[in-house]
Amino acid sequence: RATKPGPAGGPKGERTRARLIDVAIERYGDAGFRAASVSAIARVAGLTPAAAYAYFADKQALFDAAARADF
C-alpha cells in the first residue's frame, strides 16, 4: 500500500502530510491501531477525512508512513 502524492505539491503539501503523520503517531500511540480512525486523525490535524485520503490511500498506508517516520 503506497502513499499518494497528495493534492498540493511543494512545501505546503509536505507540511500537511507531515502533520497527518504526526497526529497519527499520537493517536495510534494513545488509542491503538483499531481505535484510531482516519477521520479522527484528520480532524485533529485540522483537515477533512477526504483531505487525509488524498494523501494516504487508507488507514494502513497512514500507519505505515507513521511507522517509518523519524521521531
- General shape: globular
* Mean pLDDT across every amino acid position: 90
Approximately how much helix is present in the residues? 55-70%
What's the order of the H and E elements? HHHH
Q: Uncertain runs with pLDDT below 50, 5 residues or more?
A: none
- In DSSP terms (H or I, runs of 4 or more residues), the helix count works out at 4
Compute the CA-based radius of gyration: 11 Å
Count of distinct strands? 0
**What kind of sheet is the major sheet?**
none
C-alpha termini separation = 22 Å
Helix/sheet category: mainly alpha
Strand content: under 5%
Descriptive report:
- The protein has 71 residues and is mainly α.
- Helices cover 65% and strands 0% of the residues.
- The protein has helices at 10-31, 38-44, 49-55, 59-68.
What does the secondary structure layout of this molecule look like, with pairings?
Layout: H1 10-31, H2 38-44, H3 49-55, H4 59-68
Keywords:
4 helices, 71 residues, single chain, 0% strand, mainly alpha
Short précis:
With 71 residues, this protein is an all-alpha fold.
